[in-house]
Amino acid sequence: MLKYEKIALLIEESIVENNLNHGSRLPNFKELIETYHVSKSTIVKALDLLEKRGIIYQIQGSGVFVRRKKRKGYINFSENQGFTADLGEFDITSKVLELSEVIPPLEVREHLSLDDKESVYYVKRIRYINSQVLCIEESYYNKTIIPYLNVEIAEHSIFDYCKTALKLNISFSDKYIHVIKLNKDESDLLELKEGDPGLLIDELFYLSSGEAFDFSKTIYHYVNSQFFLQSTKIYS
């Protein structure tokens, strides 16, 4: 984690600990620099990150203010760090249906820039929220970046493992969103009826270097999942 990311996390923790409401003013730049013992450029980057994440908003000449808290239980479509962070107050568990090394289909090879015979880790899981089915997730991990995965890791947060054990900096993602009708296999896993709707997210995750390392297909339960999207600056 970079220095400005650590400072952003500390500022966010301070907002939560002090139960600051929408419109509450944060300390000015000088006070933040003195509190966290970092440079002005680090504070600027930290605040820009918090603004992009919808935690704060900045008014030139007036200061930095806290944005409205998100509703509990909603998955942030603006984030790309996995949904475990959004649902931290809930019991998030996983059932691993398959974990294997495979030669991925052409679509995945193109997304991950792989050779024809290059294998990946394929992980298929059911994710649960408070023991209710949340989604089916199929993920393909580039083995040159993720050299090792096992069931124990996959039963928890793979992204936490990537960040803490592998020291990877997960930076951004591309999301492609579809509304689908569930087939028999999908509906059985989601405990729904064949033909019921599902929200399919194709997502390609990148490191800060710009290298793609994970391509995932996730189908969300239309009853048990909720989403929100925060805009930041609106340009005319």
Automatic annotation (TrEMBL):
Upper taxonomic lineage: Bacteria, Bacillati, Bacillota, Bacilli, Lactobacillales
GO biological process, one term: negative regulation of DNA-templated transcription
UniProt xrefs under InterPro entries: Bact_HTH_transcr_reg, Chorismate_lyase_/UTRA_dom_sf, Tscrpt_reg_HTH_GntR, UTRA, WH-like_DNA-bd_sf, WH_DNA-bd_sf
SUPFAM superfamilies per UniProt: Chorismate lyase-like, Winged helix' DNA-binding domain
Protein name, as recorded: GntR family transcriptional regulator
Keyword set, alphabetical order: DNA-binding, Transcription, Transcription regulation
Coiled-coil ranges (or none): none
HTH gntR-type domain segment(s): 1-69
Keyword DNA-binding part of the UniProt annotation: yes
Pfam families the UniProt entry points to: GntR (PF00392), UTRA (PF07702)
MF terms (GO), sorted A to Z: DNA binding; DNA-binding transcription factor activity
Organism name: Vagococcus teuberi
